[in-house]
Task: structure prediction
Amino acid sequence: MSSFIITCPNCNHQFEPGDTMREEIEKELRGKMIDWQKKKEVETAELLEAEKKRMHAEMQDKVRKSLAADYENQLKILQEKAVESEERLKASRQKELEFLQKEQALKAKEEEIQITIQRQLLEERAKLKEQLQKEEADKISLKEQEYQLRTKELEKQIEDQKKLVEEMRRKQEQGSMQLQGEVQELMLEEMLQSTFPFDKIEEVGKGVRGADCIQIVRNQFGNESGKIIYESKRTKDFSNEWIEKLKKDMRSFGADVAVIVTQTFPKDMDRFGEKEGVYICTFSEVRSVALLLRNALLKIADARKSQENKGDKMVMLYDYLTGTEFSEQWKAIREGFMSMRQSIQRERDTMEKLWKAREKQLEKVLLNAAHIQGSVEGIAGADAVNLNLLEDNDPLMID
Result:
């Protein structure tokens, strides 16, 4: 056992207690220790109980606050849903109201349309009754006019046949460009041969590029007076290269004049004329152009024989073609051509306008009569009243 030393508080004398004293002191210390432990246990128990109460109070407060927040959230959601449901209900009622209003408006509109239709039907029946009386009296006159129009149409068709060259040219545009060109070449040769039977029309070989035919001009004695070289083109665009090629062919064949027959002119030309020493015209103009050029060559040939030393024949030909005589002759030919063309067009427009007007009138009468006939037959029966304007063998429409 370890020694236990006691120090005197007055004199600081240290001594070792005896067994009895030690037991008393230990007993006293144990008692104090037990009291202190009991006191601490009581305090600890009180602290634990207080902490339990505090934690229980905090827990109850948190639960109460959580329940209150959930209740407020649910209440807010329910209020929002109630507002939304009320808005939907209000919108649904508004749509239902608009639908009912539209339905009522449609019914009113339908009734108004029915009244308008009945009123128009009555007015139309009155008009048709009056018109039928008038049209019945004009029936014979209409047939006579139809006969006259058909006669005029046949006359116009016969007149159009006279323009066979132009019609053939337009129809041939649907074929290949090579075939169209060959057709125009053949027509050009045939036209030149039939117009100038005493001249010699020579076809240039198919393998030769450039010119298509050469007209060897002969005078009344059968002597050669000059050559006109022709190039036939039937394309949508004019190429300036044709001019240089034809001028080269003109020198190669020893021709005096070169002519391009085309359906399209250069951009700086809109009618017959001369460009870089080559004359350009359409197929409908070539007959007149050939006649003028041939007369010029004949005059130059006569002048050359009588005055051989007065100048080059091309200069003389150029002087003639740019002179007043040639210009006035061509103007006269063109004026006559344009006058005939305008006259034919005016006659065509007048007859077609008259025909269309009469045809529309007749169609209107037949249509209105058919409406009345259908209404009457629906009420009284198909055999009650005969309202046919046409006989059984009459055509319904004008062809």
